[in-house]
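Dear support,

I submitted the protein below through the web form. The confirmation email said the job was done, but the results page showed an empty box. After a refresh the structure appeared. I'm attaching both so you can tell me whether what I see now is the final result or a partial one.
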Amino acid sequence: MAALRERLAIPVLAFGGILMAVMQTVVVPLLPDLPRLTGASPGAVSWTVTATLLAGAVLTPVLGRAGDMYGKRRVLLMALGLMTLGSLMCALTSDIGVLIVARALQGAAAAVVPLSISILRDELPPERTGSAVSLMSSTVGIGAALGLPLAALLVQYADWHVMFWATTGLGVVGLALAWWAVRESPVREPGRFDTLGALGLAAGLVCLLLAVSQGGTWGWTSPEILGLFAACVAVLALWWRQQLRAERPLVDLRLAARPRVALPHIAALLTGFAFYGNSLVTAQLVQAPTETGYGLGLSIVATGLCLLPGGVTMLLLSPVSARISAARGPRVTLALGAAIIASGYALRILDSRELWMIILGATVCAIGTTFAYSALPTLILHAVPAGQTASANGVNVLMRTIGQAVCSAAVAAVLVHHTSLVSGAPVPTLHGYLLAFAMAGTVALVACAAALSIPTDRGSREAPRSGTRTGAPRDEALEGA
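What the results page shows now:
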């Protein structure tokens, strides 16, 4: 039985990662109908997405640090439990206020991937870590590609609550499997949890992401948005000072400032921007009415199916990305992935009228995302002590989330300024979409340059296993990290 649990640990953790991505995307097919179904305004309904984004951004580094200190399995189960509870609340209510709170609880699932990656580093032999980490990283794209069409089918042919009952059932299964198959890692970094640092980071991130996500609606020069940006700068400046003085900080800023850690974080932000543009713009483009001359007028189900090949490709190519990292190093894999994303956008600019070219370009972007997302956590594992892997990877995931939020705002700004009237309604022009592709492709090239700037590891390509174990003294931080 113990051997069976060990063999199933990786698939179970990957299933948890897929569930996380599914939970983030299931509400998308509902957004056009939620005002009618809940009696709420479109602005209030948009918070079912914003609440998940904010909660995920805040809780990912916080839960990552808690996992390093109190046990990664314990915190992983808590994150899965909050996600499942949120899904159950969505299934039981039609009240928009409860739905927003429930979606915020589902945001806790964003910590599943960095916690799982840290568990894999602690438990697996070095020769298996790379492929397992690549698989975990690819679950983000796989879950998003699977969740959209499946949710759309349920919404189209059943009551919308059925979708959340289904995700609740999947959450219970994922929670039970993780409790059974995943064992607690002995690697810990004991100490007192930095509550003040967690509150400061939460306040700063809420101000930042709220301003970015609502800027297009409230107005970028409105007093509310300018006030939020000013508050973000002030709060994060105070937080930075507090972290440098804390004995056990939430985020080790001195470690994070080292080039081998800081540059992967910058690359994560840029890659998150470039990755999100693919799914965001593709979904809008293929659903545009045929009267535009370029739109295909596809349903949300068909739109999800257009993105499905990319998700399948990510699953199939995750072992390939691991082999490239083993042979050439994750730095090369990250740079290659970013370059492939840029080439995918070049295809989109070349032709965005034919369905097969749209699918091809989106799939090429997904291939690049597979390579980039698999390399990022590996770079972090090489550069930080084992006792800080969950929190460091949590920060890396946070940077991706910020990149996605900025991408959403930037794409919206571009498309709003390039519209034409179709049947009396403003619709983005093809030129606007091509500008969005060019913007995302340019950011991907900058991510490639950032990847090539990461200092090479003169030592082994495998991550050292320092940290605190039961009965073992704590090793010092990695030399030259």
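Response: this is the final, complete result; the empty box was a page-load delay. DSSP finds 18 helices and two strands in the chain.
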